[in-house]
Design goal:
The structure is a single chain. By secondary structure, the protein is an all-alpha fold. The chain is built from five helices and no strands. Helix 1 packs antiparallel against helix 4, helix 2 runs antiparallel to helix 5 and helix 3 runs antiparallel to helix 4. It is elongated, with a radius of gyration of 18 Å. The two termini are 19 Å apart. The mean pLDDT is 95.
């Protein structure tokens, strides 16, 4: 796995993206399978597995997004602004990811035996959308925000940023 960024703070976030992508690859194939599954019993079993994987995934995802929102975005925003531009869109994507996952979890509560294939597929679409937004979000951060940060944040501030963000997300 090659990392792109030189500054430790950006490498840390980039590495967390790799970890989150790895975790997402554990549950996203279940989403794809559930979109096509024809057997209600199999779909219900897979749905339970997907819920478990997403519950575990949400913990490091939240820690990562909180880290970006509490430390990285304010540091970069001091240079590029907060009112418009890339930070606004990225923060909105964070809200979308959380909303899709919350919606999925809400609509899959209860006994899976009560769920029809249609209800399962409708809920699974939210998990699929969360995956898509997450993937796009990581690309935008790594192609727009991280290079901006490396170019604009002063070395001393970058070091402080790294020190504040250097925590585990798992």
């Amino acid at each position: 796995m090659n990392l792109t960024f030189e500054k430790p703070a950006m490498r840390l976030l980039e590495n967390e993206h790799r970890y989150l992508s790895y975790l997402a690859e554990e549950w996203h194939p279940l989403v794809l399978r559930l979109e096509e599954e024809q057997d209600p019993h199999t779909a219900r079993v897979l749905l339970g597995t997907l819920r478990e994987k997403l519950e575990r995934f949400r913990i490091p995802l939240k820690k990562h997004m909180d880290k970006e929102e509490e430390h990285f975005f304010p540091a970069l925003g001091g240079y590029i602004g907060f009112e418009q531009g890339p930070l606004v869109g990225i923060q909105e994507e964070h809200r979308e990811i959380e909303a899709y996952l919350d919606h999925f979890m809400h609509h899959t509560e209860g006994d899976p035996e009560d769920f029809t294939l249609e209800k399962i597929r409708a809920a699974v679409r939210d998990a699929g959308e969360a995956f898509e937004v997450l993937t796009v979000n990581h690309v935008k951060e790594e192609t727009v925000l991280f290079p901006m940060a490396e170019a604009r944040i002063l070395p001393k501030q970058m070091l402080k940023l790294f020190e504040r963000m250097n925590t585990m997300i798992s």
